[in-house]
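Possible race condition, two jobs.
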Amino acid sequence: MSDIDPSLIDVTWRRIREYDSATAVTEAQRSAREQPAVLHFTLEFLREFDEGTRGTALGLVYLLFRAAEAARRVPLPSLSPEQIEERYTINTEWLDAMERMESAPLERWQDHLPRSPVALYILQAYGPPFQKQGPSERRGQSHLLVLLMALLETLESEEGREPSGEQ
């Protein structure tokens, strides 16, 4: 979503951090109701990872959706499993290309950088620090980036369509 910039993400993050326990539970339930396919996909996608990685993923996905909603100023459409799966496949292919590029000279990486600076910003600003991680943690972070990119691109493909409930 082109309207999401780092300052909007930061403001959204601060608002989320101010939630009390009851608000956090209510918001989690609302998100699950509004985006059941996103919740299911996120949990399935990260099934092999530890609880901490799954929790981080759910928090970052929530941040992405609240920032996207703030940018659009209307409710977001409920995404379908098929839409998410299509974007996931595209981004998995991107991740495979990046893994093959690992030993390539840095100047060759330019063509393979994420298409979504928003997803990369969220992960770098609010995800676990990449520099302090071992290979398995970096693998988890790569998967988090693919997840965020897939969801963001699915939302972008929905721009211009009617918000959920207004068809």
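Job #2 (started ~2 s after job #1):
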Amino acid sequence: MLKNPLKVGLPILFLLTVLLNNSYSLPLVCQVEINQKIKNPSFVFEGFKNNTPYKAVRRSSPDEDILEKALNEEFVSFARSEGFEIINFADYELIKNQQKFQNTGLFEEDNVPKPGKLKGSKYVLSGSIDNIFIEKKSNSKLKEGLMENLGIIGWAGAAVMEKLEKRKIEVKLSLKLINAESGETLFQRTIKAKSKEKFNYENLPEKYEAIKKVALKGLSRLTKELVAFYPQKAKVLKVKETSGKIYVFINKGKLDGIKKGDKFKIFRPEREFFKEENIDICNFVEIPVRLKIIDVKDRISIGKLEGKKKFFKEVEANFLVEKIK
């Protein structure tokens, strides 16, 4: 037995008090809410479908449209770099085929998996190339004049002009995200990308490269809007003060799409209970400071606080951060 339990008990009590005072006590309802919010979005990706007459395939891949392939590869690469989990179209096709089989009436409705469920996602993302416009006639009168008045030399000049002059290209793209279980559309955007490109209208490879360039430009805008709709979120692991500077550690890093220079808003989670409705929720109050990432590991990032210093001390472990776009 301890001769004097107070000598041991008091230091332990003091230590516990210090730890509790330096760490934000997170209500259970807020813990659950934060764990949901900080999960990286997971999408079953159906891919982009080319609904225009401008379609081209390679002999080695006769079922694969060049424009669809370019957009799909670019989108998946960009989305994964932003921390999204993308499940490819081939996996989605397997899910749909299984659904068709299970919807034959041989299975109970509750036992039929929804799209995406077998792959751990209830969201299905699809895109489309809706329209492509190419300016066919450009400087046509000048070229006709050259051909009529200068003979062979005029024809040659017109051919060079045809190859080198810029033509207007417009590509219309759409991106749609739905909840596969409810059928609700969560995100839908349509944009038109326009540009003037140099290419020979009669040369198919040149023409498709020009179209692809404009389409990828439009895709960049679409994906940025999707990222803004689903901003990256993380949780504060700890706050450390060194030499008068405050550093904040968050639970996401390079593998989650976090990069040096990224900036985050910071939110304090607060439990709210509405007695009359018997509702227990978590409210997030934004603190007027920003977190700028200065170091990134695989699964952890470190940032420094910016803004009004009088609010720096308010930032604590278990707070929510949200990436600014």
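Residues 42-229 form a domain with the Rossmann fold fold (CATH 3.40.50.10610).
Logs attached separately.
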